[in-house]
Design brief:
Elements: E1 7-9, H1 15-22, H2 30-45, H3 59-75, E2 78-82, H4 89-99, E3 114-118, H5 123-131, E4 138-143, H6 150-167, H7 169-174, E5 176-180, H8 186-193, E6 197-200, H9 214-222, H10 227-241, H11 250-262, E7 268-273, H12 279-293, E8 295-297, E9 303-306, E10 309-312, H13 323-328, E11 333-340, H14 357-360, H15 367-384, E12 389-394, H16 399-420, H17 428-440, H18 447-458
Parallel strand pairs: 2-3, 2-4, 4-5, 5-6, 7-10, 7-11, 11-12
Antiparallel strand pairs: 1-12, 8-9
The structure holds 5-phosphoarabinonic acid (PA5).
Length: 464
């Protein structure tokens, strides 16, 4: 295996370790995985899996993104992303992983912009964010594929007004970039009248699969990350996830084990990176897995209510929070650890208080060794109780490995959709909540939804 390739260790899912009752024989899933892959191949031929083409974007594809990044860097030192769900989580995942949890507190490297993702329009936090901005030095990337999501559009209207009040109409427009559908939606309508720069979300790339499109790439370029390495990593993984069967295909193995265990009552999938900086990745994955696989109806229209609940956790922090439940609670979980092999930072624990025996063993060891020992001990303790886990190993937390991880998990989600017989590309439940919000907020054309909401409001209330 190449030194810079991620790997998936699933030894702690096998009958050899967990016994017959809790272990899974991967080979049992070979035929089912192959059928799901054939179905996925069909989707690809129909042009529905645009995310698989994103890694092969070349310089000319990236030119409009780089041009905007360059322009914004000349104009501002802070970029605020206005977007939600798939329009926000991928950027946070990669930026947090590469620049750290404290990225917006600690100084960024020369020329790199601070990127703030405002994915919640609730007034307290959004207001606080706006209060703290120097608008002269701030640009805004409004990201909405549909151009109609109430949260993002409301935030945009607030910001648009504020910019014009403080800087005038021309400067307001200069500080905006829209990332949206190639032709449709409110942002395109606005951009017809006002000269706002626009980038495209390809039609065949859904929100939660869009991190490697302009959705993620513009903010990540503004933050100074290496898009070439990110895409190169994703391209390396694309080759592997398209291999038929389970052999050497991380996405297929991941999907088979998750689906296999979900069908044996393990309805909770915990993603637990042993690095705080990778918590955003676990949150990105939680959306991808939940929104793609949590479906009422099968592909044949039958009522099935499928899905596996993803939980984002972080090691070692959650060893002292959720782990007790994972160890001894219901046998309903599969845990995926993400373990960097190189934390790219060495902190050696000083040899102090050597006379205290219960402290002396730590002296001279590194914090990297401690994190890895904690992860290994947790996996072993779970396995001892018949509780399965996999470990996704990252040679390093860099753009290349992240590209591999993102693409692998996206492909795994589609394969899992095929195995479960649900559509991993739609989100009817999310759309329903969007429509009810439109109704309640008085949008024309959503009168039925308004009446539905009034019906709920008129129901007897039970409040203590
Ligand atoms: O994955 C999805 O499709 C959703 O999470 C969307 O990204 C989210 O609802 C935001 O939609 P939009 O980009 O259209 O504003």
């Amino acid at each position: 295996m190449a030194d810079d390739m991620i790997s998936l260790d699933y030894g702690f899912c096998t009958p050899a370790v967990l016994g017959e009752q809790h272990g899974l024989e991967l080979a049992e899933f070979e035929q089912r995985v192959r059928r799901a892959q054939q179905w996925m191949g069909g989707l690809r031929q129909e042009g529905k899996l645009g995310f698989l083409d994103l890694p092969s974007q070349d310089q000319s594809d990236l030119a409009p993104i780089m041009e905007q990044a360059e322009r914004l860097r000349g104009l501002a030192d802070t970029l605020v992303v206005l977007g939600i769900g798939g329009s926000a989580l991928g950027t946070t995942a990669v930026d947090m992983a590469l620049a750290g949890t404290l990225r917006n507190v600690a100084p960024r490297p020369e020329g790199a912009m601070r990127v703030l993702v405002a994915d919640n329009p609730e007034p307290r936090s959004f207001g606080q964010l706006l209060d703290g901005l120097d608008l002269q030095r701030t640009a805004f990337n409004v990201i909405s594929k549909s151009g109609s999501t109430a949260e993002t559009m409301s935030q945009f209207l607030v910001v648009r007004e504020l910019l014009e009040q403080k800087l005038g109409a021309e400067q307001a427009v200069a500080r905006l970039v829209f990332t949206t559908d190639p032709e449709l939606g409110n942002l395109r309508l606005i951009a017809r009248d006002e000269p706002v720069a626009c980038l495209e979300v390809p039609r065949n790339v859904g929100g939660r699969y869009s991190v490697l499109s302009a959705v993620g790439l513009l903010p990540l370029a503004c933050a100074g990350h290496d898009l070439g390495e990110l895409l190169a990593g994703a391209a390396e993984m694309t080759q592997r996830v398209l291999r038929p069967g389970l052999a050497d295909n991380l996405a297929a193995v991941f999907a088979a084990l998750c689906v296999g265990y979900s069908e044996r009552g393990r309805n909770v999938l915990v993603m637990m990176p042993y690095a705080s900086d990778l918590f955003g990745l676990a949150q990105w994955f939680a959306q991808l897995w939940a929104e793609s696989l949590g479906k009422a109806r099968s592909l044949d229209g039958e009522l099935v209510h499928r899905g596996q609940t993803p939980v984002a956790a972080v090691g070692t922090t959650d060893q002292h929070s959720q782990l007790q439940l994972y160890m001894e609670g219901p046998q309903d979980k599969l845990v995926v650890f993400i373990l960097p092999e190189d934390y790219q930072r060495v902190i050696t624990i000083p040899r102090r208080y050597q006379q205290i025996e219960s402290l002396a063993y730590l002296g001279g060891q590194t914090l990297c060794r401690l994190a890895q020992a904690e992860a290994a001990a947790t996996a072993a303790a779970l396995a001892g109780g018949g509780r399965p886990s996999m470990t996704l190993r990252l040679p390093a937390v860099n753009a290349r490995c992240l590209g591999q991880v993102l693409l692998m998990l996206e492909a795994a989600t589609v394969i899992a959709g095929g195995m479960l017989g649900v559509d991993p590309l739609d989100q009817p439940g999310v759309e329903m909540s969007k429509r009810l919000t439109y109704g309640l907020m008085g949008r024309r054309g959503f009168e039925d939804e308004r009446r539905q909401m009034e019906g709920f409001a008129a129901a007897p209330r039970f409040v203590v």
